[in-house]
């Protein structure tokens, strides 16, 4: 691991532990109860709630693309049945909580990262193919108030693409069976990630003929916002409609790939159907 990547990981890890430490006072003052039942059935310390989701999304065809694609994919979340039911934003990674209380939780996370292929856009001729990958990592989530949620994820692609860190802040309002949420987003990436997705080598530039050589460096990849509205049909069934906007900044926005045949404005919309059930381990 290079020095830049080590420094990046250490800085983000320190930030995460800072958030965790600062939550201790709020936790001491919290009175939010733990759940004692699910779907009217009592739960015990060995019970878990598994939520299986089907997701349909319209997203950019690849990072920085000005074209969109339609994708359908599954995901899931898992929590102890005795933990408080938590809000989960549609753009959260797939999470497994190791520890949680009404104010703070942390665990492991994974997210799907799409690739970039010549068949996606013929203008990519000569540029390196990027295979899709899974990005495992860790997350920390903080609820300083009943309505405000902060979430931090740091992940690393299995294809060696480097580290990314997602920062999300959501204001969450529950009105009857409806839950409305939204807030700002920011994504940071190290030099390895930016180089893979946004750099253009002299060889690639010569073959493509429409872009100039460019070496992308790490930093803030994008800033934006997300919003969602969900409806609980029952304790088991839920549907969510959501949207997200990201504006590519720094070297991501300067990349010839984005400037020549892409867009700094990245939009995603989607619909999720979720089914939750209790299981005992």
TrEMBL record:
SUPFAM superfamilies named among the record's database cross-references: Porins (SSF56935)
Cell compartment(s), UniProt: Cell outer membrane
One of the record's GO cellular component terms: cell outer membrane
Main location: membrane
Domain of life according to the entry: Bacteria
UniProt xrefs under Pfam families: MipA (PF06629)
Signal peptide feature range: 1-28
Coiled coil: none
Alphabetical UniProt keywords: Cell outer membrane, Membrane, Signal
PANTHER family xrefs: MLTA-INTERACTING PROTEIN-RELATED
Protein family (similarity comment): Belongs to the MipA/OmpV family.
Protein name, per record: Outer membrane scaffolding protein for murein synthesis (MipA/OmpV family)
Species in which this protein is naturally found: Chelatococcus composti
């Amino acid at each position: 691991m290079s020095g830049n990547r080590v420094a990046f990981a250490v800085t983000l890890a320190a930030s995460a532990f800072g958030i965790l430490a600062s939550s201790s006072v709020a936790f001491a003052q919290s009175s939010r109860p733990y759940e004692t039942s699910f779907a009217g059935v009592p739960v015990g310390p060995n019970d878990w709630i598994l939520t299986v989701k089907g997701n349909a999304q319209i997203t950019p065809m690849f990072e920085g693309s000005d074209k969109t694609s339609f994708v359908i994919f599954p995901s899931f979340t898992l929590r102890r049945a005795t933990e408080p039911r938590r809000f989960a934003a549609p753009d959260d990674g797939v999470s497994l909580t190791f520890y949680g209380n009404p104010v703070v939780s942390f665990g492991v996370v994974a997210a799907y990262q799409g690739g970039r292929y010549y068949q996606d856009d013929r203008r990519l001729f000569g540029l390196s193919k990027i295979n899709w990958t899974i990005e495992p990592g860790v997350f920390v989530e903080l609820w300083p108030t009943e309505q405000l949620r902060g979430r931090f994820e740091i992940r690393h692609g299995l294809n060696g693409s480097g580290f990314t860190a997602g920062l999300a802040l959501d204001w969450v309002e529950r009105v009857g069976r409806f839950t409305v949420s939204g807030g700002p987003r920011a994504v940071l990436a190290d030099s390895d990630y930016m180089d893979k997705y946004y750099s253009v080598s002299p060889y690639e530039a010569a073959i493509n003929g429409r872009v100039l050589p460019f070496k992308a460096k790490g930093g803030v990849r994008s800033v934006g916002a997300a919003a969602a509205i969900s409806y609980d049909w029952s304790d088991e069934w839920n549907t969510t409609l959501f949207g997200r906007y990201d504006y590519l900044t720094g070297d991501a926005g300067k990349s010839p790939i984005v400037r020549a045949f892409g867009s700094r404005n990245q939009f995603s919309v989607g619909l999720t159907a979720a089914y939750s059930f209790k299981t005992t381990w």
